[in-house]
Amino acid sequence: MNIEITDLTRRFGAVQAVAGVDLQVGPGVFGLLGPNGAGKTSLLRMMATAVPPSSGRLRLLDRDPGRYGPRREIRRRLGYLPQNPGYYPGFTVAEYVEYFALLKEVPPARTRAAVATAIDRVELGDRRKARLRTLSGGMLRRVGIAQAIVNEPELLLLDEPTAGLDPEQRVTFRSLLRDLGQRATVVVSTHLVEDVAAACARVALMDRGRIVFHGTPDGLAASGDGQAAGDTPIERGYSAVLAQARS
Ligand SMILES: Nc1ncnc2c1ncn2[C@@H]1O[C@H](COP(=O)(O)OP(=O)(O)OP(=O)(O)O)[C@@H](O)[C@H]1O
Question: SUPFAM superfamilies annotated for this entry (predicted)?
Answer without folding.
Answer: P-loop containing nucleoside triphosphate hydrolases
